[in-house]
């Protein structure tokens, strides 16, 4: 028996990186898991196979988080395939950098659509489907609280927006025992932010531990917040950033 046995979870943007690790961690703890992806069908199917290898059911749904209708449809489809919904993890996110003075409208819109609007819309679609005692967990960033360098201003703002969303939504769904929380990764080794990338040493130097995190580090925090042990934690954030914001 594991602490998520029988639970049904949807993780957005989980064909690669942190989302894939979250999907696998939830399955290892006993949940059936649906994932969304934008382009990487093969990688999404690999994640489904890893979920199935734990003995749980897995489903991959193509849904562009920038597309409002696709987001809403994917939440409904996930709940249909899973036979209900207990856990929503809003993980899909994109990073488009550059100084504000030089950012294109297309990049600003893409960040807001994927990192902010899709979180609102997926949560909105999930609320009537979530079982009482359910979980909404979003992936923020250490940059939501502190922005130690330029070139990530709009991205950081998109993650800060999730702070107020999390607090407000926790108030709205709390009477049903549904908790709403954020997990804030620091530099984490993925395609988005490789540990050997050009900017990596600077980011590593900002952490107290002097090291990058692994996707599994973030997944462990999400699995904890999804578990019954976290029933009294809501409307808050948990940093998994190696002390980047210490
Ligand atoms: P990656 O770029 O490595 O992976 C992104 C995942 O999200 C992929 O599965 C990708 O799908 C999916 N995705 C991207 N855009 C869309 C979209 N429009 N619609 C649906 N799915 C999409 O990112 P990470 O794993 O590093 O990041 C995951 C989350 O963690 C993000 O919210 C990010 O902002 C946050 N974060 C990451 C940090 C880091 O250092 N890595 C630090 C702080 C926060 P596909 O494969 O189909 O493209």
UniProtKB/TrEMBL annotation:
Coiled coil: none annotated. Belongs to the short-chain dehydrogenases/reductases (SDR) family. This is 3-oxoacyl-ACP reductase FabG. SUPFAM superfamilies: NAD(P)-binding Rossmann-fold domains. It comes from Tardiphaga alba. Keywords: Oxidoreductase.
